[in-house]
Design goal:
There is one protein chain. The chain has 309 residues and is α/β, with parallel strands linked by helices. The chain is built from ten helices and 14 strands. The chain folds into two domains: 152 residues, Medium-chain alcohol dehydrogenases, catalytic domain (Quinone Oxidoreductase, Chain A, domain 1, Alpha-Beta Complex); 127 residues, NAD(P)-binding Rossmann-like Domain (Rossmann fold), CATH 3.40.50.720. It is 28% helix and 24% strand. Strand 13, helix 10 and strand 14 form a beta-alpha-beta unit. The protein is globular, with a radius of gyration of 19 Å.
């Protein structure tokens, strides 16, 4: 048996428990992974609270899509992986926040040597969503792109991917995160009153594309800046999507394994950074989500589940 996060009714963080569960041995085509780190994401809270009608929970429910760990068992017809291999994984079954995950072998990729465990365990959801936003607004060399929420988990990766694509990037963020955004090639700008004018002063020739990774009226900001609505993408403000006719492409629009391999290699090569601003043991999962709900952190929060090899 091993420990896993579970909840048996809808509610806030108080419904989360860490309980003992049976480890499921891998069937043909599957592997069992000892989880070293697991990411947490804002989109998990509405599911737990019962506010996401498109993705209802089936009780008892687990949580989490992102994880990284070490292969503990290999099922039949798995030739590309062996016990002891270090991997980055993704789950479609809300079970990543656990000491052990049994999953299809095609849902893990080798963890490149240069990728640290915390970044590896938090990469999948934020990384594939960031990739989707870049694709949605068709970022090209020479573009000027605004990333709203440029210091969050998705925003910090979208900012870097846009820079790598050859765009000039203006990233909105709170002042404590400006130094990091500058270090990755972006032009940071403070939130708040007068933001449209501040951005226009920075990029007087206009904005070509706009990525909203924050919500809170940012789609309206893109519209006010005169961006073609076909090149505005939000991952959070679905009411604004309907009102303004902008895009709302997310991680489901990219091929997950291919995107994860590319992102992991960019991390390993030092072309991409995924900052982690807080870590918690699995037993403190409630505290991790409470910290996440406060916002304003640079990058991601990670659960450190079992010791790294």
């Amino acid at each position: 048996m091993s420990k896993a996060v579970r909840f048996s009714r809808y509610g806030g963080t108080e419904v989360l428990e860490v309980v003992d569960v049976d480890d499921r041995p891998p069937a043909a085509g599957e592997v069992r992974v000892r989880v070293v780190t697991a990411g947490i994401n804002p989109g998990e809270a509405p599911i737990r609270e019962g506010a996401n009608s498109a993705h209802p929970a089936t009780f008892p429910s687990g949580q989490g899509s992102d994880f990284a760990g070490v292969i503990a068992e290999v099922g039949d017809r798995v030739d590309s992986l062996k016990v002891g291999d270090e991997v980055i994984g993704f789950s479609d079954w809300r079970n990543a926040q656990a000491e052990s995950v049994t999953i299809s072998a095609d849902h893990v990729i080798p963890k490149p040597h240069g990728v640290d465990w915390n970044a590896a365990g938090a990469l999948f959801v934020a990384g594939t969503t960031a990739r989707a936003t870049i694709d949605a607004v068709r970022v090209r060399r020479g573009d000027t792109v605004v990333v709203a929420g440029g210091a969050g988990g998705v925003g910090v990766l979208a900012t870097q991917l846009a820079v790598l694509a050859g765009a000039a990037v203006v990233a909105t963020a709170s002042a404590p995160n400006h130094a990091f955004l500058t270090s990755i090639g972006a032009i940071p700008v403070e939130y708040g009153k007068g933001l449209v004018d501040r951005i226009r002063k920075i990029v007087p020739d206009g904005v070509d594309a706009f990525i909203d990774a924050h919500g809170a009226g940012n789609v309206e900001l893109g519209v006010a800046l005169g961006v073609d609505r076909d090149r505005i993408n939000t991952i959070i403000d679905f009411a604004a999507r309907k009102k303004y006719g902008v895009k709302a492409d997310g991680m489901s629009t990219v091929e997950p394994r291919e995107a994860l391999i590319t992102l992991a290699h960019l991390l390993a090569n030092g072309e991409l950074q995924l900052p982690v601003y807080a870590t918690y043991p699995l037993e403190r999962v409630r505290a991790a989500y409470e910290q996440l709900s406060k916002g304003h952190g640079l990058g991601k929060i990670v659960l450190e589940v079992t010791p790294a090899p």
